[in-house]
């Protein structure tokens, strides 16, 4: 079988969605099929462009492939008779963010038209798929609510779990992941103002935009916590990043309404690290439980500082919650051997 | 500089466009540029105006300082600082003339060339085809040697494969003609096909043809070879069959053969391929319509291993003498 994984590309941005697509192709090949990924550039601004972007995807043609696996808007709109969707996310500006008043489309006169076009194109495309899967429950919920379509949740597996055996419980909290606005590293830096324990915050991940790392460092400087905050915006080799995770006291991952459990969460759990998350962090809350796998607190610097202080002042608690996080994660048994056959069926 | 290297491609295919995109990406990164390699799907022969429009509609201007576009219709992408490096244009695999699509695509081609900062072709033949199609003759910038990923040393047991077809095969890859020629060749001539095919029916046809030949004359693997497997086959081969009429496929094949120290057997009807070899010295040009000529070439390769080896060595030397990636980047990005 010849399989094409279609993904959207935001040039020079690399995060969980890109890692998922790479890992998917690797595991398809390991299962004995010919597979590759094509990443099609996507620009979502200005909003009027979205119509052109969608139409362009509909005008592309594929030949010589038996199965297409679609992941992200709008690349999943490229026509193919044997398409399976493993949905990372739709263009949420036309869905829940519209309803909550946070959508950029609301600022445009033609916003309602664009929103309608996105929803109609999605519904038509998804309805024509052989099967619908999503990477998290919240994504499936949105699909059911807005498009009237049922999807099975199929969480993305952690690749190379052997890289995360755990290690020391060192003197820092690791905040890994892309440096992007919705990841809210800023919130953690603000929390450090209120942290009393002698613990450092290590922010490690590539920045989506130039200047992000300097802005975060500047914030730490302004708040007087620069001596306790490290911002490493390099694209770290996986072994170095794994080493940071394995030897952290705990992990902090506080995105706003994430669409998945997220690699950072899974890596932390596998490394037996307690995870600090927020009550509005979205998909990762499918795995994390307050007081069991770490702490889930409101997105407030003082609340986050209290969680950090609890772990920093009681290493035994950090260790125990970390081991529970690993147990909870491993009990889920999220693996490629069950995912690949479904995508190829 | 943020540079996008854009090419069209058929999913899971191979060819010069993919080799060039990979090579450019590596060379540009080595020079400190930030690079994204962008492969956009295309299916020639249908809905070409729609596909051409899609290529123009994909937004690249904000995220890239420069675009290097390769295989058509990637040359149509819109960017204020665009460099084109084009192989031969075959008219998109045939455009129905009745709806005006051919004319509109020809206008789009010319507009794209006029809008580019610099335009290069991968061969003299390609440059001439573009002149005929768009009225502008690009400069010629031959592709540098591919990374030497194949083992050049002969196998310990000698080179027992007269000619290797590394695939993938398409309907125009000449295998039917070669199979017919195998009925006329000396018994020691062996051809090995190992490349898979985009169309399963092509594989079935090859299997049928192999079945009616004496055992061992046409060896046939259905799967595409892994790099080590291909290297092992190259080490056993005296020459490589690069018979595609499409120069994108043929040139990639010829250069890979030369990188492995092997001469290429090319299709005389592919001008770019003929341009890449010196007939009888670094490769062999054969007319696909002349079964006896194909058989004669295979017979001579089987009978004269020293001749085959000398051609392979000369092909490797010619490849090594070609300008490298630094020269390509100078031409594309230099002042």
Give the arrangement of secondary structure elements.
The complex is a heterodimer of chains A (345) and B (335).
Chain A (H helix, E strand, L loop, with lengths): L1 E8 L6 H15 L3 E8 L7 H11 L7 E6 L10 E7 L6 H4 L11 H17 L3 E4 L2 H11 L4 E2 L18 E5 L8 H8 L7 E5 L7 H12 L5 E4 L5 H9 L3 E3 L10 H8 L3 E5 L15 E4 L3 H13 L1 H18 L3 H9 L1
Parallel strand pairs in A: 1-2, 1-3, 3-4, 4-5, 5-6, 7-8, 7-10, 8-9, 10-11, 11-12
Helix pairs in contact in A: 6-7, 6-10, 9-11, 10-11
Chain B lengths: L1 E8 L6 H15 L3 E8 L6 H10 L8 E4 L12 E5 L14 H15 L2 E4 L2 H11 L4 E2 L22 E3 L9 H8 L8 E3 L6 H12 L6 E3 L6 H10 L3 E3 L4 H13 L4 E4 L3 H6 L6 E4 L4 H13 L1 H16 L4 H9 L2
Parallel strand pairs in B: 1-2, 1-3, 3-4, 4-5, 5-6, 7-8, 8-9, 10-11, 11-12
Helix pairs in contact in B: 5-10, 8-11
GO molecular function, one term (chain A): glycosyltransferase activity
Protein name (chain A): Glycosyltransferase involved in cell wall biosynthesis
Keywords (chain A): Transferase
Description:
The complex is a heterodimer of chains A (345) and B (335). Chain A has 345 residues and is an alpha/beta fold. Chain A has helices at residues 16-30, 49-59, 96-99, 111-127, 137-147, 185-192, 212-223, 238-246, 263-270, 301-313, 315-332, 336-344, and strands spanning 2-9, 34-41, 67-72, 83-89, 131-134, 152-153, 172-176, 200-204, 229-232, 250-252, 274-278, 294-297. In chain A, α6 packs parallel to α7 (212-223) and α9 (263-270) packs across α11 (315-332). Chain B is of the alpha/beta class. Chain B folds into 2 domains: 2-141, Rossmann fold; 163-320, Rossmann fold, CATH 3.40.50. In chain B, 41% of the residues lie in helices and 15% in strands. Chain B has helices at residues 16-30, 48-57, 101-115, 124-134, 175-182, 200-211, 227-236, 247-259, 271-276, 291-303, 305-320, 325-333, and strands spanning 2-9, 34-41, 66-69, 82-86, 118-121, 139-140, 163-165, 191-193, 218-220, 240-242, 264-267, 283-286. In chain B, the strands form 3 sheets. A 6-stranded parallel beta sheet of chain B has the order 2-1-3-4-5-6. Chain B has a 3-stranded parallel beta sheet with strand order 7-8-9, covered by helices on one side. The longest helix of chain B has 16 residues, at 305-320. The mean pLDDT of chain B is 88. Chains A and B meet through β1, β2 and α2 of A and β1, β2 and α2 of B.
């Amino acid at each position: 079988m010849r399989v094409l994984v279609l993904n959207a590309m935001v040039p020079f941005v690399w995060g969980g969605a890109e890692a998922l697509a790479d890992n998917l192709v690797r595991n398809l090949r390991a299962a004995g099929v010919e597979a590759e990924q094509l990443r099609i550039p996507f620009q979502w601004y200005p909003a009027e462009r979205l119509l052109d972007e969608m139409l362009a995807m509909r005008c592309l043609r594929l030949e010589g492939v038996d199965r297409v696996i679609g992941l992200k808007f709008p690349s999943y709109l490229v026509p193919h008779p044997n398409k399976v969707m493993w949905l990372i996310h739709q263009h949420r500006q036309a869905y829940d963010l519209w309803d909550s008043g946070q959508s950029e489309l609301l600022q445009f006169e033609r916003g309602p038209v664009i929103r309608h076009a996105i929803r109609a194109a999605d519904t038509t495309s998804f309805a024509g798929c052989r099967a619908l899967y999503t990477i998290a429950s919240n994504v499936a919920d949105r699909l059911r609510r807005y498009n009237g379509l049922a999807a099975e949740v199929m969480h993305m597996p952690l690749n190379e779990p052997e890289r995360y055996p755990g290690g020391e419980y060192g003197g820092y909290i690791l905040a890994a992941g892309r440096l992007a606005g919705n990841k809210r590293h800023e919130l953690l830096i603000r929390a450090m103002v209120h942290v009393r324990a002698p613990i450092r915050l290590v922010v490690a991940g590539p920045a989506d935009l130039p200047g992000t790392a300097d802005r975060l460092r500047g914030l730490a400087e302004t708040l007087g916590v620069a001596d306790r905050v490290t911002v490493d915006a390099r694209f770290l080799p996986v072994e170095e990043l794994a080493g940071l995770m394995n030897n952290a006291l705990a992990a902090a991952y506080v995105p706003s309404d994430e669409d998945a459990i997220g690699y950072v969460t899974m890596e932390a759990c596998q490394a037996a690290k307690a995870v600090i998350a927020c009550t509005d962090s979205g998909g990762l809350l499918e795995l994390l439980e307050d007081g069991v796998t770490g702490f889930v607190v409101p997105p407030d610097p003082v609340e986050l500082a209290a969680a950090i202080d609890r772990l920093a002042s009681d290493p035994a608690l950090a260790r125990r919650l970390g081991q529970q996080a690993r147990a909870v994660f491993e009990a889920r048994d999220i693996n490629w051997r069950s995912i690949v056959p479904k995508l190829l069926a | 500089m943020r540079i996008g290297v854009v090419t069209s491609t058929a999913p899971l295919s191979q060819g010069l466009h993919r080799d060039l995109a990979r090579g450019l990406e590596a060379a540009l990164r080595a020079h400190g540029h930030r690079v994204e390699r962008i492969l956009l799907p295309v299916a020639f022969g249908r809905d070409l105006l729609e596909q051409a429009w899609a290529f123009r509609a994909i937004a690249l201007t904000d995220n890239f300082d420069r675009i290097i576009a390769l295989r058509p219709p990637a040359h149509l992408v819109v960017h204020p600082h665009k460099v084109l490096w084009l192989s031969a244009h075959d008219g998109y695999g045939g455009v129905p003339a009745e709806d005006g699509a051919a004319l509109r695509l020809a206008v789009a081609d010319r507009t794209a060339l006029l809008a580019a900062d610099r335009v290069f072709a991968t061969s003299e033949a390609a440059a001439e085809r573009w002149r005929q199609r768009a009225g502008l003759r690009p400069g010629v910038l031959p592709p540098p040697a591919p990374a030497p990923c194949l083992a050049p040393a002969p196998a310990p047991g000698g080179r027992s494969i007269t000619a290797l077809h590394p695939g993938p095969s398409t309907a125009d890859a000449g295998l039917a003609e070669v199979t017919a020629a195998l009925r006329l060749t000396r018994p020691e001539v062996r051809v090995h096909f190992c490349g898979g095919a985009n169309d399963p029916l092509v594989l079935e046809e090859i299997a049928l043809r192999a079945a009616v030949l004496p055992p061992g004359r046409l060896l046939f693997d259905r799967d595409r070879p892994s790099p080590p497997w291909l290297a092992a086959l190259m080490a056993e081969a005296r020459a490589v069959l690069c018979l595609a009429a499409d120069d994108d496929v043929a040139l990639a094949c010829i250069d890979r053969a030369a990188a492995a120290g092997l001469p290429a057997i090319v299709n005389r009807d592919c001008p770019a391929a003929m341009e890449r070899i010196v007939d009888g010295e670094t490769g062999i040009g054969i007319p696909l319509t002349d079964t006896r000529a194909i058989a004669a070439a295979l017979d001579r390769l089987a009978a004269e291993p020293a001749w085959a080896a000398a051609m392979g060595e000369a092909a490797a030397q010619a490849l090594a003498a070609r300008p490298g990636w630094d020269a390509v980047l100078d031409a594309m990005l230099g002042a």
